[in-house]
Specification:
The protein has eight helices and five strands, in the order αβββααβααααβα. By secondary structure, it is an alpha/beta fold. It has one domain. β2 and β3 form a beta hairpin. The chain is globular, with a radius of gyration of 19 Å.
Length: 212
């Protein structure tokens, strides 16, 4: 279901992003990640809602997009139409270790599977294309071809195939549903890690609990 238009859509979208940010801050308090930056500046800001740095010092730029209109899932075409692909490419090209994550309340199952397959491959781009794209079926071929087309890459060219493969390895599709279970899980984790009522207390009053 799509959000209501105009102001309501903006409020609900901001609520979704806020809950995701809260989840990352709780992970930071629990020492699961190294840092979270919400208000980025300069080149880091482009098309990004927050920057999460892992304990291994890997920078993952995250874009929250709760909905893509009224669609039940999103496609490579959708993320291209919102300019996300180009922003993603810019962050990848600035640093070969940068990662990019799209966080959404709706899934993109096949594209997410392709990204995961790239990470789980033998790290040879031609083998990846042959055995994990071409031979799997038309759905994967079409998505991969569209992905290359929007990034102005030709998968038949060895250099471009290497680039496409590298970008996919560093792309993460995070399905974060906006439902009661997700909200309850967030409150449960906040209750464990913070003092005060996690649902009603002002964020300025909530403080991390002391570790035993």
């Amino acid at each position: 279901m799509a959000y209501e238009p105009a102001g309501m859509a903006e409020k609900l979208g901001n609520r979704y992003e806020g809950r995701w940010v809260a989840k990352q801050l709780l992970a930071l308090i629990n020492e699961g990640i190294k840092s979270v930056t919400v208000e980025l500046i300069g080149t880091n800001e482009q098309g990004v809602d927050l920057l999460v740095i892992s304990k291994d010092n890997i920078s993952q730029f995250q874009q929250c997009k709760a909905r893509f209109g009224s669609k039940e899932s999103f496609s490579v075409s959708d993320i291209d139409s919102y300019g996300i692909l180009n922003n993603m490419k810019d962050h990848f090209d600035r640093d070969p270790k940068n990662e990019f994550a799209i966080v959404s309340a709706i899934p993109s199952r096949t594209f997410a599977d392709i990204c995961e397959s790239a990470r789980n491959s033998n790290d040879i781009p031609s083998d990846f294309y042959q055995h994990q794209i071409y031979e799997i079926g038309k759905a994967r071929r079409d998505i991969f071809n569209n992905y290359c087309k929007y990034l102005k890459l030709n998968h038949k060219d060895e250099h471009d195939l290497i680039l496409a493969f590298d970008y996919l390895k560093r792309t993460y599709i995070i399905h974060y549903p906006e439902d009661q279970n997700t909200w309850s899980d967030l409150l449960y984790k906040a209750n464990i890690l913070l003092t005060g009522d996690p649902e009603w207390t002002s964020p300025q009053i909530l403080t991390p609990k002391k570790r035993q």
